[in-house]
User: Fold C40 family peptidase from Stutzerimonas tarimensis.
Amino acid sequence: MSAMIRPSLILAAALLSACASHTPPPLVSESPAPAPQVASPVAHDVLFRALGLVGTPYRWGGNTPESGFDCSGLIGYVYNDVAGIALPRTTTEMSRMSAAQVKRDSLRAGDLVFFATNGGRRVSHAGIYVGDGRFVHAPSSGGTVRLDSLSNGYWQNTYLSARRVLEHEQLARNP
Assistant:
């Protein structure tokens, strides 16, 4: 009986290997995927520095890890520490810089995101976009620097705009 099984297995293996050697053509034409937009090395340094400050206490007017941070103090500290860029002190002034405005679906690591947390359309809060729909910010009294998602309902409803500071470093760099 084993003499009958052996030829059957060889025949089955030959048929299967013949089927596997031919790749069917794709049903739709394949086009190369668009290259992802890669942030600059400085942007990566900015986001890693910002992420390293998660857990630092919030303090209104604070602008150092030792004293704590408010939202604009955090942003100013990170950009100055990592990139040598002096940014305006308030979120309103930051939102008015002559840096490129960025659409929400085009955000890159290191971009500044702005919110109207007091209602209306007036900027009152900001953070640093780190990628994957998340940003680092110093949210409120009694809190700490943290990572949040732009898809959170609160942040979706208060989101206003974004700016890309790192493409216009010459506008904000210290002499």
Q: What stands out?
A: The chain has one domain: 41-172. Confidence is low (pLDDT under 50) at residues 4-38, 168-175. The longest helix spans residues 2-20.
